[in-house]
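From the pipeline queue, job 12 of 40. The input is one protein chain; the requested action is below.

Action: predict structure.
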Amino acid sequence: MDSLIKLDPTDLVWALGMIAIAIGLSSWQRLGLEIQLAIATGRTVVQLLGVGYVLAVIFALKNPIAVVGVLMVMLTIATITARNRIGKKIPQLLPVVFGSIFFSTALTLSYTNLLIIQPETWYEPQYLIPLAGIVLGNAMNGAAIAGERLVSTISSSRLEIETHLSLGATPQQAVAGYRKDAIRAGLIPTLNQMMVVGVVTLPGMITGQLLSGIEPLDAASYQILIMLMLAFANLITTVLVTQGLTRQFFNAQAQLQLP
């Protein structure tokens, strides 16, 4: 395979030309997206270049403390983002989301590292950081979708839930159907992606590997691993998030209490 063609600053400037054209098109069509496109582009460039420099240092150090520090920052940002999308008024929501994403990500990465990839050291940043980033991002989306669906459904179904409770149902039984729907909703994006991967779309992981010169079958194998990791992590995350949220809606007397 040919070696990777590196992009220099001039190439990136030419790449920005596509956004300049998009901004011009938005202005011509009076879409009002010029500012959003400019801000999004600026953030993309700054954030990715910043990440590139930080990861270059982390990869060179190969220090477990530095690697864990990066992962904790990523986990914290993912937790806060998911919490904000679900709602800020629910008590103990932040630790519920944090614990769910942390457990699912740690379990997924441990299984993958110990049984499949088996790097020389468990904290090998070349594998651990990229895989953690992919899993965290998808776990964050799954938690946010499932959590938001469950919260909105419970909030709009108070009479039905209280009727079940009055007939002797436990809190878990009263919201079991809503919880299943929320878990399914959280998994839909991942399942849809798995259905069309390689046929309709080529994910960023396999595209990046192909551009870097990796053999197509090797790139496809890693992408299979990624998709299975995402399905596994998302299911665990949504199950834990919805379980934790359910407990926040009932008091010690098994009475429904909306925030």
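Job complete. The chain has a mean pLDDT of 90.
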